[in-house]
Sequence to fold (212 residues):
Amino acid sequence: MSLLDVLTVAVLAFVGVRIAQGTRFALSGTGRRRIAAIVRGVRWTHFALAVPTLAVVLLVAIALVEVPGLDFGWWTAIGGVGNPVTGTTDRTAGTALEWIIPLAFLTLLLPALPLFAEVEERMFRLGSERRTRPQQARRGLEFGLAHALIGIPIGVALALGIGGWYFTWWYLRGYRRTHDPHAAMLESTRAHLAYNTTIVGLIIVAVALGGA
Fold:
């Protein structure tokens, strides 16, 4: 087994454990109550607006990774594909693991998806009503760049900043209606959840078709 194989296995093991921990909490009483508070407020508009936003993010990401240097990501450098959370890697290409690992990871991820979205919204959006427009824009970009830490290409991380600005728009919209930061965060969390659910759905379809 080569060094890259060892690194890939280590990354997948770490990601798998983290996802499993999130799923375990999601299935607890506290987790289920928190998820219910998020999910029951999800509306069709959250999904309807997520689709064009995701399309813009993808188009910008495709353009940015053509820029020399912006195509680098440590996960892709060791043979990974996309986000380590999907469990997709060149190391399993041509084997049953090529679709078994991604489907297992995504199946585990689905129950905890609302909670993971809320964690990111609490970190990057809560308090946005007190920030200036430039500060809000910078925070959205930081949200995108934070994803470079988990290995995705820098250009894709920059493009994800568009998603950060989109979630900020939902947060501020919710704050103007309620004047409650936590209610506003719930609204941006629902938008984030719809966005992530759309991505996961597309990945599951792609993996299933690849496996077939």
